[in-house]
């Protein structure tokens, strides 16, 4: 039966568990993951111990990259009903992906005791294999290979170069990525607020470049990875560009969707070419927007090929393939919880930094920046910023744009310049809807319930939940 037919049937008998199971599976197969999840949850409300539904929810959460959430949910089920073999088995799989191998083995063992039919060669292999790989993690280019993808599947770094050479393609054109050379000059001064983030970035790349010998004495090199996360419009992309201007480096911006939209196997080569480009043009800022796409591209990740792409990315970041000297890798995401925790190990994106909505002083700063070069009266920045609670940087810009449009219209009528006033700005602010609150609705749940290693403490602090 197809999905619309099943949906109709479910509407007619909403408590029919076998029917709901069919529907859930059809949805999951069609990658309608949110609806699949909701369906399995409905089943669990009707039949809390339904093993198929538990499995279904876990699969969906895994496909969404929400490993932590999956673990939390299944642990809850386990508490309620400690003798369900499927629950132990699911947890074994989840802990395996999360690389908590001892926990994974313990859970697997218990699952098999409860139900020997659950024995899985695949999982056993992964548990054994990952264990030996962990030992070798430092010397191997591929630190983890949970999906079972063979190391040999990774592209030989030279392969792409050869191909490109023979076809004589301009790599930038071939890659269709944004490349700005050093002439582009947005500086930190054009980014309002974000002071501690600016200092972190300087510490990672600017100071080590300026004081190479001193940093070398401490075994520190310029470069590394920083992952920025936060609500939309709060300056993640802007500060990444400005970093390149500030340190006088090249800026290479990659939307990961561009990489993922390739044929399988091509993506790795493309990713490698991008990193090579950044190394060649160092000092450079290599910016990956929407890094969560790596985890969220469900179709790819269902296969081991997706895993291989992640491994390629991590190996490039690690500097195992080639040194990333003077290359600062910045990543930005609205949904860091979709990312595999392997991204956040030391040496990779080893700093996860929250880019919050601007506080009042930052809002003044941003206002000042966006009012620059416009005809204004003397603006009471505190008053204007005070009218912009919960505004993102983009919202502030939108309010200024609205006020400007009104002023221009008036100026045309009057035939002379009408300077922007504090009042014009505050009334434009009233017409602008702050856009950051919606993000916190979902962020809050992750921060509360999936806050491994305290990654999202900053979100809780921002919300006043944690001091
Ligand atoms: N701190 C800031 N200072 C000055 N302008 C800002 C600031 N933050 C945001 N803006 C304005 O908002 C616009 C959008 O910001 P930006 O693209 O950097 O947001 P983002 O955090 O990357 O959002 P998204 O998550 O949607 O990608 C910027 O181009 C700029 O005009
Ligand atoms: Mg952005």
Give an account of the 3D structure.
This protein is an alpha/beta fold. The protein has 3 domains: 3-136, Tetratricopeptide repeat domain (Serine Threonine Protein Phosphatase 5, Tetratricopeptide repeat), CATH 1.25.40.10; 154-354, Rossmann fold; 360-431, Helicase, Ruva Protein, domain 3 (Orthogonal Bundle). Helices cover 57% and strands 7% of the residues. It has a 6-stranded mixed beta sheet with strand order 1-3-4-5-2-6, with helices on both faces. Magnesium ion binds next to helix 13.
Give a brief rundown of this model:
This protein has 467 residues and is α/β, with parallel strands linked by helices. 57% of the residues lie in helices and 7% in strands.
Radius of gyration: 25 Å
Largest sheet: 6 strands, mixed
Q: What class, by secondary structure content?
A: alpha/beta
Number of strands: 6
Mean pLDDT: 81
Outline type: globular
